Amino acid sequence: MRIGELAERTGTSVRSLRYYEQRGLLRSERSSGNQREYDEVAVERVHLIRSLLAAGLSTETIDDVLPCVSEPAIQTPRLTRTLLEERARIDADIARLEGMRRLLDDVIAQAPPVV
Amino acid sequence: MRIGELAERTGTSVRSLRYYEQRGLLRSERSSGNQREYDEVAVERVHLIRSLLAAGLSTETIDDVLPCVSEPAIQTPRLTRTLLEERARIDADIARLEGMRRLLDDVIAQAPPVV
DNA sequence: GTGCAACCTGACACCGATGTCAGGTGCAAG
DNA sequence: CTTGCACCTGACATCGGTGTCAGGTTGCAC
């Protein structure tokens, strides 16, 4: 498929897909007139990229991490370290968010009876 | 206290404190020669602001929300709505992060025996 | 073969919180 | 009084992912 279809099927902008490619996260064949051509697997991959971005990983980190998501065997000690760091960061983020969730809960609980 | 002390006691840059004031999150008296003067309460307030920022709230939203954290009574229906929206957003963030945490767990579990 | 939609590259703009610099003033100690 | 540090304002820079525009090419449909 071409980039427009991939964009639509993944809920992503064309701009972002080109950016992901530029950052090395996504590859494409080029067809005759230099237009990007993607296979089905790309859809999954883009979803994964977006999830990792949404979790706060940078494209650079994703570039490190992606290969061993698809092929776990490639994992090197250095990569494992990156993974552990990112997991720790995510844990910290979750903890912070849960703290704020509780705070908001308290504040909301004291609201005038809109309930 | 003056701004330098507040910065140090809250682990914040002077720059950020001025920014918070500019965004309406923090107030200060001005003393004789136009220098900001803070009371003890400011320390707590800055900590709260930073926590909310870290939870992903914008200064604008914090400006909405802060008054009813200190004085729950002020909460208006509109404010309550903002609070509910932010809580929902935080819940979604937590869920997404937990998903990625699980993903990373899986990947890490398949690592070569660095353990 | 003509036209329009989709694509290409490259560049610049944006957002939001923060860093940083410049040029000037306040304040306390020597 | 002088020196040096803390403070003041205002402006511009940064980062990363994305929007958007310009100017040009491809590809499909009529």
UniProtKB/TrEMBL annotation, chains A, B:
What are the HTH merR-type domain coordinates in residue numbering?
A: 1-68
Matching entries from PANTHER family are given as: MERR FAMILY REGULATORY PROTEIN, REDOX-CYCLING DRUG-SENSING TRANSCRIPTIONAL ACTIVATOR SOXR
What domain of life does the native source organism fall in?
Bacteria
Record's keyword terms, sorted: DNA-binding
| InterPro entries noted in UniProt | DNA-bd_dom_put_sf, MerR-type_HTH_dom, MerR_fam
Name of the featured protein: MerR family transcriptional regulator
